[in-house]
Design a protein that fits this description.
With 330 residues, the chain is an all-beta fold. Helix content is 0%, strand content 58%. The chain is built from no helices and 27 strands. The radius of gyration is 33 Å and the shape is elongated. The N terminus is likely disordered.
């Protein structure tokens, strides 16, 4: 264990020399926290803690408490015992960064018989930065209009000191996006990806995982896009939940159809795929309402899940599908 005890003048919590110590048992720890900053996976960050007795009576260190013994390592066992007034104990150790990218933290609690704050906490932490990463690594798009073919961007970057790279290939995007750009053709520390939403991208909510291949690193990254695709005409709501309800208490629900192009359209047909519901459209070119109710003759205590298909004469939105659910209980 690396411990050094030395007679010295009394210092306060900022390390400043003070003329008179506090009455009783008091101690302080310097520094108050350890920040490893940005680091590589598994990087070891050396640190030193100074425990100082700043009172008129000796302080006894009783315990050192921390959860992850792999994350915090000391040179031997942390000291347990007495620190005389006006002396210090120095403790050396290593903070080990985890293997996964992201912010990490570890708390160390030192328990003593001090009169005030007998348990002191020190926070250790940092941020693991991968050799190559995508920013943002997860893109959340609550509503994207396929008719407008918007472009989505992400930045692929190398950690400082890493080899320059090119983006060579994407996969997993084909149903939703076409590639606008993979970045520069020459290796660089940063490359920008640009993907354009397909006009015919499937409507609804999708979790898209795009695999990004790099060269010369020979590595693959994942870019996650949580996407809700909205068409030229939107159906609201996109699902009808009648729930569990008595037959004589069922109330019709409505689907509203709205155009986002300003173009007039007509509803040319409405069907229930399984026949569990009756759907009736009403409206004109500016907007339509489809009223939906459970079909007569449905059995009790049987869940019925169906899809209402709405066809239109709009060339960009020929069909919309809305899910419907009901269970009659009496």
């Amino acid at each position: 264990t690396s411990l050094v005890g030395s007679e010295m003048c009394i210092r306060d919590s900022f390390g400043t020399v003070v003329d008179r110590p506090e009455e009783g048992r008091h101690f302080d720890i310097r520094p108050g926290g350890i920040d490893a900053g940005e680091c590589e996976p598994g990087r070891e960050h050396a640190f030193e803690l100074i425990l100082a007795s700043i009172g008129t009576k000796a302080v006894t260190i009783r315990d050192w408490r921390y959860e992850d013994r792999r994350r915090l390592r000391f040179e031997g066992a942390p000291p347990i015992g007495v620190i005389e007034p006006g002396t210090e104990r120095r403790v050396k150790g290593v903070l080990v960064a985890p293997d996964s990218p992201g912010v990490f933290r570890e708390a160390l609690r030192i328990v003593s018989d001090a009169d005030r704050r007998p348990e002191r906490q020190i926070l250790f932490g940092g941020k693991v930065v991968a050799e190559y990463s995508i920013v943002p690594d997860r893109l959340i798009v609550p509503g994207a209009y396929a008719i407008k073919e918007p472009i989505f961007r992400a930045r692929v970057q190398a950690r400082e000191g890493s080899e320059p790279f090119r983006v060579t290939r994407l996969s997993g995007h084909e149903r939703f996006f076409e590639i606008e750009s993979l970045g520069e053709t020459e290796p660089a520390a940063t490359q920008e990806l640009r993907l354009r939403l397909l006009r015919k991208a499937p409507l609804g909510r999708h979790a898209v995982k795009v695999t990004v291949d790099l060269d010369p690193a020979g590595k693959s990254l994942e870019w996650h896009v949580d996407l809700r695709v909205v068409g030229a005409i939107q159906a609201a709501p996109d699902s009808l939940q009648f729930g569990r309800v008595k037959r004589d208490q069922v109330k019709p629900q409505q689907i509203r159809l709205l155009s986002f192009t300003g173009r007039l359209f007509d509803v040319t047909g409405v069907t229930s795929r399984q026949g569990y519901f009756i759907a009736e459209p009403k409206g004109t070119g500016g907007g339509w309402i489809v009223t939906v109710r459970p079909a007569p003759g449905l059995s009790l205590k049987t869940p019925y899940r169906d899809h209402i298909e709405i066809t239109t004469n709009d060339p960009d939105m020929p069909k919309l599908v809305v899910e419907a659910f009901v269970e009659l209980v009496g």
